[in-house]
Amino acid sequence: MSDPILTLDNIYTDIAQYHILQGVNFTVPRGQVTMLLGRNGVGKTTTLKTIMGQWRAKSGAILFEGRDINTLPTATRARAGIGFVPEDMGIFGDLTVEENMILGCTSGPLDAVRKDWLLAAFPALATFWKSEAGNLSGGQKQMLSIARALAEDRQLYLIDEPTKGLAPAIVSTMAQALRELKEQGASILLVEQNFSVARALGDSAVVMDDGAVVWSGAMAELAGNKDLQEQLMGLSMEAH
């Protein structure tokens, strides 16, 4: 297995009076796609937000490139090389697609080669480059949200359900872009409910339940074991 770019060591996160994460432990191997799976409400999104610093872990360590970042502000974590695509997209509707992309670049102008790759991966963004992002369809907004996070080369990408609610054609476009990102050597932690996408992209998988990790291993092992899928998640990937 590749050396880990990210390690969560016994992470506990509370939100108000609720104990959401209860001793989360897993690693994200460098240069691979790690799928974070599980039923709704088990703590997957909270895990991503805790890594990013939007929720502060009560205890435990978050090691990014060997450094504990648990006490660092969100902006510092982003500057260290972590990109985040939230489930709610978080784009600026009154700004153009181009302006949204510019905001994704914290260290300088959008690199021309990077821009060409992103517009080839998401052709709709080229069509609406000068249009206000608020006028885009839901699928196009999701493309913009992901493209903005990819505007700069990051060491680690945290992506929360990028294909949720999208038409099959847009899911295919999204999956291909993530596949190309993986081929470029990116490390990705991906929450995804579309198991065909998870099976196609994932190198490894982490399954959560009730705020803790209940299984981790090779994605191929999980994808090939129907009984294990039903035991861990109450359903079979073959149904998705």
Automatic annotation (TrEMBL):
Any idea what this protein is called? LIV-I protein F
Q: Which family does it belong to?
A: Belongs to the ABC transporter superfamily.
Task: Indicate whether Iron appears among the record's keywords.
Answer: no
What are the residue boundaries of the ABC transporter domain, all occurrences included? 6-235
This protein's species is Thalassovita mediterranea
Q: Which Gene3D superfamilies would you find in this protein's record? A: P-loop containing nucleotide triphosphate hydrolases (3.40.50.300)
Which residues are the signal sequence here?
Answer: none
Any one of the GO BP annotations: L-amino acid transport
Keyword Isomerase belongs to the record: no
Query: Which lineage?
Result: Bacteria, Pseudomonadati, Pseudomonadota, Alphaproteobacteria, Rhodobacterales
Q: Which domain of life is it from?
A: Bacteria
GO MF annotation terms? ATP binding; ATP hydrolysis activity; branched-chain amino acid transmembrane transporter activity
Query: InterPro entries per the record?
Result: AAA+_ATPase, ABC_transporter-like_ATP-bd, ABC_transporter-like_CS, BCAA_Transport_ATP-bd_LivF, P-loop_NTPase
| Keyword terms of this UniProt record | Amino-acid transport, ATP-binding, Nucleotide-binding, Transport
Please name the CDD domains in this protein's record: ABC_TM1139_LivF_branched
